[in-house]
Structure formats: C-alpha cells, structure tokens
Amino acid sequence: MAQKLTIFCYSFVAGVAAAMIMHTGAIPLATVMTLWTLSGACGVLYILFKKTKYSLPLLILTPAFFAAANYYRAVDVSDKNHISHYVDEKFFDRTIITGTVVREPDARDNSTKLTIKPELIEKPAKSGWGVIKSSATLSGKTGFVLVTIYPTIGEFYDTVEYGDKIKVDAALLPPSEMKNPAGFDYGRYLKARGVFAVMYARRTEMVQYLGPGDTDWLTRLAIKLKRRFLLIIRKTMLYPESAFLGGVTLGSRGGVPQKVKMEFQATGVGHVLAVSGLHV
To answer: Rounded to an integer, what distance in angstroms lies between the CA atom of residue 101 and that of residue 147?
Structure first.
C-alpha cells in the first residue's frame, strides 16, 4: 500500500511538471475536461484491472492526467473578470483594489505579504485627484493579488490579519518573469499559487482597512489555534529558539532571524525551516 501511495504522489508531481513543460499558459476548457475524463477513465480501469499487468501504468496515468488538468485550470485567465486583464503598464500608474485577505499574512523581516481576493477594481483618472475613470465589480475566477506592505504604512501593519477587507491604492503590476535562463521563475511560482498581479504599499494613504470580509470560519479557527500555539512556544522558550521551533512545527517563518536562515541555507539544510521540509 505504501509503495502504491508513493507512486501515486510522484505521478501527480510528474503530471504538473509535464504540463508546465509542454505548455506554460492556459489551454481550452475542452482540453482540460478531456484530461479530467482520461483521469477518471484510468481510475475506473485501475479498479477493474488492479490485479493485472496493466495496474501500474493505470496507477501512474490517473494522478498524472488529473494533476495536469488542475494545473491548466489554475493558470486559466480567460474569465473577463480575471485580474490579469487590468494590470498597469508602468510602475507609477495607479489602480485601486478592494478585496479580502484570503490567506494568512506572510510576515517577513521587513515586510508582510497579503494575498487578496479582488472584489472591486477602480482606475483613477490621470488628471484630477480622486476622479475615477472606470470601475468594475469582480466575481468568479478573478485570480489573486499579492500585496506587499511595509512598516511605513503605520499601525495597520501590525494588526492586519486573515479576513480583513482592505482597499489598496498602488500600481497593479504583473509578477516578474525569469530573467536568467537558470534563475528562479518567480512569476510562474506565483501563478501556480493563483497570484496574477502584485502591488506594493509603502505609505499610509495607500492602504485602508474597511472592516471584516467574508471568509471561511474553519480557516479562521485554524489560524487562531496556530497563533495560540505560537504564543505558548514564545512564552516557554527563549528567542531565537522559540522562532525556530515555530518555523519547523507550524511553518511560521517570519520570526526566524535572517542570520539563522542564512546559516541553515549555507549548510544545505534550509528546507528544515519549512514544515514539509522537516518531515522530509
């Protein structure tokens, strides 16, 4: 059973990798549906012929087709409300996004990254402050916006949390693409996580808190429990050991000192600072 589960997991990863290599962008919905159908067919055939020589190929193809279909569904930007259709051309352009923080804020040493589900987008006029040239209400498959905020925005930097509804006034930019052939493709990484635009807020007037948004209660409960566990760790252990334990057990990377991160990376064990890496 363990061997079959290992094959299933590796095949799923291979399916995503194959999809990324063969075609990095979106494909027609009919092709995605075909991949899902093939995955289901292979699954049914595996159940029928699991004691024959065909079981191994079917076990490999079932998750591979399913993973490829899900990857192409994730990078599909054909919806008219998708955020990628509204990105700015220049860094100094302005776009006003109203949306909800739908993932736990990712606190770093000098900034915090917020994943926003956009609900309203407004394009200010270039002439006349406060004049809105156009606006659109977004729904359905919009994609996410990754907003990076800095301590210079004021008090909200320390109080922002999952479920906050906020308004951000800044340039709406596409994620940066890979510039070196052997470099890390940050844009592809974000798109795989459903993020198709980024914003940077460094001043107080660029971010406005509007109140609680419509979020999942189960996620709120999980984050609340995680914070309580982190508080217990910090009360019972000294820093930076408490930050390290929080990182390897709960995935809290923000409190780990930069020096500790660099030492782990230099010794080739930087993956331990992630929950999944610790399990490896």
So the answer is: 10
Distance in angstroms (rounded) separating the CA atoms of residues 255 and 247: 8
Which residue has 């429990």 as its token pair? 225
- Euclidean distance between CA atoms 119 and 142, whole angstroms: 8
Intra-chain end-to-end CA distance of the chain, in Å: 19
- DSSP class of residue 8 equals H
Which tokens belong to 4? Answer: 């079959």
60-95 per-position pLDDT tens digit: 889 999 988 888 887 777 788 889 888 988 888 889
CB 143 within 8 A of CB 123: no
Within 10 Å of residue 95's Cβ, how many Cβ atoms? Answer: 22
Based on C-alpha coordinates, what's the Rg of the chain?
22
Q: Which are the contacts of 268, defined by CB distance < 8 A and separation ≥ 6?
A: none
Q: How is residue 265 written in tokens? A: 């990376």
Backbone angles phi, psi at 184, to 5 degrees: -80, 125
Per DSSP, helices labelled H in the chain are 2-22, 29-48, 55-74, 156-159, 186-192, 217-236, 241-250, 258-266, 275-279
What tokens were used for 136?
């659109």
Q: Does the predicted model carry a pTM greater than 0.90?
A: no
- Rounded alpha-carbon distances, angstroms, from residue 198 to 87, 155, 251: 9, 22, 23
**Number of residues that make up the chain:** 280
